[in-house]
């Protein structure tokens, strides 16, 4: 069975400003269809998912946070199918697609456009049996991927690839 523990980045791999652990790493095997607390997002329903992982790092003043979520699937096809739920025509009104470099075998980036999520950015990465999301809260950038999120997404995709 696939695990997600080694994919979650350790505190030491975070940029200096994001080294406060605000939610300890957690992983769990899955035997159900709902695998996240966000059922209104594509990651909230995980057909063929076998494990999930979650960790949150933040700045000391809590102005910025990086949220990592990863779901392991029973096959690359199941992971690819789950990732495709994030691609158009998936367009919630509170998110807008961002043009960004590709991470992993395929990825998509979003920015929040309204309310408290305005300026928060997110990258969803598919690599092998995994689909991972990195949320960067507090970026404030609207038109381009934040350089910190870019680095975090690359690191996360590399960790998924190493797990294979």
What does this entry look like structurally?
This protein has 164 residues and is α+β, with helices and mostly antiparallel strands. It has two helices and seven strands; from the N terminus they run βββαββββα. The protein has a seven-stranded antiparallel β-sheet. The longest helix is centred in the last third of the chain and has 17 residues. The chain is globular, with a radius of gyration of 15 Å. The two termini are 12 Å apart. The mean pLDDT is 85.
Order of strands in the sheet with the most strands?
A: 1-2-3-7-6-5-4
How many strand elements? 7
Determine the N-to-C terminus distance: 12 Å
Radius of gyration equals 15 Å
Which spans have pLDDT < 50 for at least 5 consecutive residues?
A: none
Give the ordered list of helices and strands.
EEEHEEEEH
| Number of H/I helices | 2
Q: Briefly, what is this?
A:
16% of the residues lie in helices and 34% in strands. The chain is an alpha+beta fold.
Descriptors:
164 residues; alpha+beta
Q: How do the strands and helices of this protein lay out in sequence?
A:
Elements lengths: L19 E10 L19 E10 L6 E9 L2 H9 L10 E4 L7 E7 L8 E7 L2 E8 L9 H17 L1
Antiparallel strand pairs: 1-2, 2-3, 3-7, 4-5, 5-6, 6-7
């Amino acid at each position: 069975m696939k695990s997600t523990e080694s994919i979650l980045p350790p505190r030491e791999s975070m940029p200096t400003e994001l080294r406060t652990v605000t939610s300890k790493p957690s992983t769990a095997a899955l035997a159900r269809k709902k695998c996240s607390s966000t059922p209104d997002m594509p990651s909230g329903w995980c057909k063929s998912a076998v494990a999930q992982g979650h960790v949150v790092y933040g700045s000391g003043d809590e102005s910025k946070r990086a949220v990592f979520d990863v779901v392991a699937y029973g096959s690359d096809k199941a992971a690819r199918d789950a990732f495709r739920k994030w691609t158009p025509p998936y367009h919630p009104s509170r998110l807008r697609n961002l043009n960004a470099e590709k991470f992993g075998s395929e990825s998509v980036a979003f920015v929040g456009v309204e309310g408290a999520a305005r300026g928060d950015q997110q990258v969803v990465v598919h690599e092998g049996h995994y689909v991972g999301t990195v949320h960067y809260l507090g970026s404030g950038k609207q038109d381009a991927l934040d350089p910190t999120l870019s680095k975090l997404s690359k690191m996360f995709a590399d960790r998924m690839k190493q797990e294979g």
